[in-house]
Amino acid sequence: MPVFIPMTALDTLGRRARLFPQSTGKRITLTERDVLWFALLHEHGPLPSSYLHERTKDRWVSEKRAKERLTDLFNEANTPHEGPYLTRPLQQFRTIDSRYNELIYDLMPAAETALRAADRWRSHNARPSGPWLHGHMVACITASIELVAMARADLTYVPGWRILERAGAELRYPVTIADPTSGRQLTKYLIPDALFGLEYHTAAGSRFRFFVVEADRATEPLTSSNWNRKCVVRSFLQYEAYVCGARYNEHLKLTAPLLVLNVCSTAARAERMRAALQKLRPGGMPYQLFQSWEGFGDVWRPQAMNRALLEGVWERVGGVGFGIDG
User: Fold this and answer.
1) Cα separation of 55 and 286, whole Å?
2) In 3-state terms, what secondary structure has residue 321?
3) Quick check: 318 pLDDT over 60?
4) What confidence tens digit (pLDDT) does each residue in 263-272 have?
5) Residue 103: pLDDT over 80
6) 52, 135, 203, 248: least surrounded by Cβ within 10 Å?
7) Is 56 left (phi over 0), alpha (psi -120 to 50) or beta?
C-alpha cells in the first residue's frame, strides 16, 4: 500500500522535494549497476548524476532511466540494508538557480554496508577531507580522468586505493624542508588531495606513470611569512623533496615517475602559481603540471565531465606543454 506523502514534502508542481528523501514504501532490490555507482562514489566522492550514468552507459543506455533509478536510491527506505542508499548533499543547493542544476549524489551508510557485502569496500581508499566544495572538485577531477580512460583501449586507470593497499601506506608523508628565508628546518605532513596511476598499453608492453592531485580554489596564499602556515610555495618545496628526493619511492613503493597535477579554479590563479614557481626555481619543476577548470569558484554549479584533464595539454614552467595520456 503506498505511503502518504504530506503536502509539505512536495514542490509547487506536486512532486517530491529534491532536498530530503520521501519514501513511498517501494521495495528496492540492488542491481549490478547500483553497486557500480556506489563504488564510483566511494572511490572519488560526491558526483553529479551524469558521471554515474557515464560509468554504466555501455550496458544501461538510457540517461532518463538512470536518473529515475538514482531518485529511488535517494528516496526509498525499504531496502535490504535498512535505509536509503544515496544522499543529495545539501551544499549543492546553495548555488544560483540550483533547481535547474543536475543533482549531485553521495553515499549513505546503507550503501557502505552494501559495498562491504559485495567485497567492494576499500579500507585504503582516501577521499579528500576539508570543505565540501573542495572535495567535490577533487572527485570530479579524478572521476573525469577515470571515466575518459575507461573508453580507451590504450589506457587503464589505477585507483589510489590500489596503490596505497599495495604499499601498506596512507596518503600522507612527513617531509622536511628549509625555510628559504631563515634556513630553519621544518617537518610537515604532505597530504595530496588524491592519488592515481595510468597504465599505458604499448607495443613494447605496459608502462606506468603515477599522479597526485592538488585542487586549488585560491583559498591558500601563494606564500606566507609564517612558514608554519600552509601556502603554495611551501607545497612546491615539499613536493621537490618528495619527488626529487625519491621519498615517494619509499612511501608508495613505486619505481615509475610521479607527477603533480595542479588544477586551479581560474586561469589567472594557474598563471600566478606558475609565476611563483618560476620565481622559486627559474628552471621550473618539470613534474609540476597546471590546468584550470573554471567552475569551482565562489559562484559555481555542477560541472560536466572534463575530458581535457586526460586528453588536453598541461602547462609547465620552463618547458613545453605535456599530455598525460600518452
Assistant:
1) 33
2) coil
3) yes
4) 999 999 999 9
5) yes
6) 203
7) alpha
Contact 120, 42 (CB under 8 A): yes
DSSP state of 17: P
Return the pLDDT at 119.
96
Decide: 177 and 234 in contact? Cβ < 8 Å. yes
Residue type, 77: A
Contact between 236 and 230 (Cβ < 8 Å): no
Backbone angles phi, psi at 195, to 5 degrees: -140, 140
- The pTM of this model reads 0.93
Residue 228's Cβ-count burial label (10 Å; 0-12, 13-18, 19+) is exposed
Length of the chain: 326
- State how far Cα 91 lies from the chain centre: 17
How far from 324 is each of 236, 261, 286, CA to CA, in Å? 20, 10, 13
Q: Which of 245, 128, 250 is nearest to 176 (CA)?
A: 245
| Secondary structure of 60-80 as H, E, C letters | CCCHHHHHHHHHHHHHCCECC
Residue 111 has pLDDT above 60, yes or no: yes
The residues facing 157 across adjacent strands are 198
How far is the first Cα of the chain from the last one, in angstroms, to the nearest whole number?
A: 57
Residue position matching grid coordinates 521495495: 27
Dump pLDDT digits (tens) for 21-58.
Answer: 999 999 999 999 999 999 999 999 999 999 999 999 99
Beta carbons within 8 Å of 16's beta carbon, 6+ residues apart: 5, 9, 10, 22, 75
Q: Which three cell numbers stand for residue 198?
A: 595510468
